[in-house]
Amino acid sequence: MLTGEQIRAARALSRTEQSELARLSGLSLETIKRLERIRGPVNANARTLRAIHDAFEGLGVQFDGDDAGNIGVLRRLSEARLTETSARPPDTAYAPRLHRLVYQSHIAHSGAESLRPTLAYINAEAGILHASLGLTGIIYVHEGRILQALEGDRDAVHQAYRAISCYPQHRDLRLIEDRPTAQRQFSGFSFCCGMFPEDFARLHGEQTLQGGFNLADLTPGAASDLLGVARDLQQAPPRKTRGNPGACTLASACLDSTCGRARMAPSHHDAPQAH
User: Are 57 and 25 in contact (CB under 8 A)?
Assistant: First the structure.
């Protein structure tokens, strides 16, 4: 059983708009509005109820109740259930809808600070986010600019993007691609940053890297190609010996002005979490 009051409360608890709930559940906006107007148990079929349950579960919200008629809404405070959900075999009636999202942003920072501690946080936090939601993809960072691909179940991809967009360190987020896809481009999660002399032969004078990673005119196809090159760079010298970007052993050779040649680095403990 699910009531209109529970749906409204769950939206308030997760700070989700009606239009966003409709998108996450795959239901129409009018259906969401109709169900929320109902007082008491909603009049809906099992498929509709399951879609709403799954949408809120992806947002960390669960419905509660007992035989005495008491009802409630709970919000999870840990990632444990998310990990459990991502590991659960998919229901054939609700098979994951494979989706790809690519966005661009830049990291807010002082020009006098090295981005290495911040990059280390991004790498670690993004790895956790990808693992907990069953996502694959890559983050490519150059001159403080970020190009990231997220692949996986549609709802999980959009949940991850909402989480990313909430952090103030990301400035001027711009969606490049947001669509269903037939297959994944990446087999796991990887992180590529900086610029080294050896890269130029592989990048072949890539125009999007001129003038500080200018992606204003980057098409989805060009973004996919660039991220594919970044994935390959991770497996080639010198990056394959780089290690954690926060303690990069190649920093002195890096041509990226926000990382290798920055004048000073902030305290590791003061570095903000970007994901």
Answer: no
